Amino acid sequence: MVDENPAMAFLVRVGEGGGDAGRRKPGEGLNASLFPGQIIANNRYSGLSVSELEKRGVRVFRIATDPIDGTTKTVLSESSALTALLITEGEIQTVPDVYMEKLTLDSIAARRGLTTNDPLDKVVQGLADSHHVVPNHLNGFSLKRDRHPIQALLGLGINMVGDSDGDLLPGLMPGVQPGVYDNGFPLHAMLGDTGGAAEYLIAATANQWAGGESHGRFVSADGMKNRGWEGRYDFTTEDIRVIKEAGLQANKNYPIDELVDTSNGLAVFGGITSNSHFPHLSGVYVGDNYAQVDVIKVGSSGRVTKKRFWFDFKAPIATMVENFNPVTETLMKCDIRDVRGELRSILANPSRTERLHREITLSLYQIFSIQEGGKFALIEEKMRELGDERIQAIVSNLMELQPDWFV
User: Fold this and answer.
1) What residues of the chain score a pLDDT lower than 70?
2) CATH topology classification for 64-317
């Protein structure tokens, strides 16, 4: 997008990038990730700060992304895996890699004063009172995790519809209410659930736009590991440090509009596999000469729309699959002694060369600083800390074979 429109750029506020540079998951090549603070701009503006971009008349949008919600489900082709993106011209708070307790409410229970500061029995009773029903006419959601108080919630009378993986879309459903479960009720709330803060920001903002209400509060993964739900506020010293460094507080309920400027923006949810919670969201379908993708859009106006996109292949499907495979995957799977030869083969193809540059930018961001003009400056200390012989071989050979990429 920024290639065609240089007057637009994106600042990543919440992404998946983190940990060691070039982090990998089992069976994968380099795991290209968008990371907080990364600026995506036209090549002519490479290396410029947000303020410098804005001085040049470039509109800088803030984004929060969760590339795959339900990694295991994606690999196993199980239901309810999706990808999500939040875009706004306002500010998005960068949140630390700490779990959050999430409370999302539908439009009827919204603005009734319920927050994560309230005990679960008060939340359930508040939901029931706002709907003028007994709790067993309500559906709540939380992931099926030992740390979550599912049995306690069932004891309070509310029905619980859980899932083994993926709590992003259920954080949007109370506001949208796209359908009903087998018991004939929609999802009224997500409660007693903890998980990644990135998912909270994206789904909670969309839920708020759709008429619901969303709250979050930091919790301790170590505390819950030791004492379950009751230990969620047993913060470690490291938890406190990380939360404070982000300019946030550990023992505080955060309505979503304290973390995201909800005045304008757009949230997009794309189906990877068919969805058990959102019946209108189908998974990706790949035909002989095309691919089909379903996308749900939620705007700050409150409008919810679903679109289906078709992508025609310009080449046979086998060629398309090869083109979509990361270039770096070849480098990570070959014998380390063959890295230089593989690099030569990649660099002989202009399109693969361009893709390699992009993948290196995304995957090895911690060992390079990006200079003006898009050139890489190697941070040798970070390279030594990484201690990965294969990545060292890739970088050293690339610096010799493609010196114009480096300062």
Assistant:
1) 16-33
2) D-Maltodextrin-Binding Protein; domain 2 (3.40.190)
